[in-house]
Structure prediction request, 275 residues.
Amino acid sequence: MISNKSIVVTGASSGIGKSILSELVAQEGNRIIAAARGADKITGYGDNVIPFSCDLSTKEGVDALFAKAEEVFDKIDIFFCNAGAPYYERFDYEDWNRIQRIFDLNTVSHIYTYSKYLNHLDGREGRLVYTISAMGEMAIPGYALYAATKFAMKGFQQAIRDETPENLQISCIYPVSTKTNFFNVGGGGRKMEPPFPVQAPEKVAKAVVKGVDKDKDHIYPCPVYLPSKILMNAVPPVKKLYISAQKGKLRRFVKRVKEEEEGILEDIKLKKTLK
Prediction:
């Protein structure tokens, strides 16, 4: 049980972050800063939860969060670095700023947080928890940029473990598809077909909190993920079939987007004609 700790949870207004927040609140004596871009959505948790609005894709946002935490806590015992966002798309465009945005939030922010947290601890014990994603170990069609940000985090945590002083422990989470707004946000508000398998965020959160409590370095909330990974590596045709299914989902999504856009253009032309 994680109890009587001073904790920061980012991305706490929805999805896995919200479920982790609920799990931590249910355990005794935890004080939590719940950070999100829209922290006004974080309500009903009582006095031990302090909502904090910030844009964690910016240096200023991360700095402001640490300033708030140091104002409230003597020490941050656990920092859940969970904030992130997906794109679901065919990557065939030239848009430097769009690429930069997803890396700023999913990668640069988390790497910068490591440095901030290490300096904050100043030799005291603490734990940094990164939400990486199963797509940080296996990329699938439609998530090229998202997977790239997560592969980068996988590499960063792997290297930094050999540099990190003994007082700072790192846990990494590898959730599979989760029943959250993730699959609406990633598709620009359009319904998506999530990759199989799919887990409830509450189950992910329970596994995460349990894993952190047991000081695990790597946490795999879905019980079938690791056996599936071993199977795909041992029997390549199985992986080929899985990827083929994901390609089909992307083709259907791209086709639907194209049809919707063509329909909008036809509506605009009709309205101009009627005028």
Observations:
- The mean pLDDT is 91.
- The beta strands are 6-10, 31-36, 49-53, 78-81, 126-131, 168-173, 177-178, 198-199, 218-219.
- Residues 6-223 form a domain with the Rossmann fold fold (CATH 3.40.50.720).
- The two ends are 67 Å apart (CA to CA).
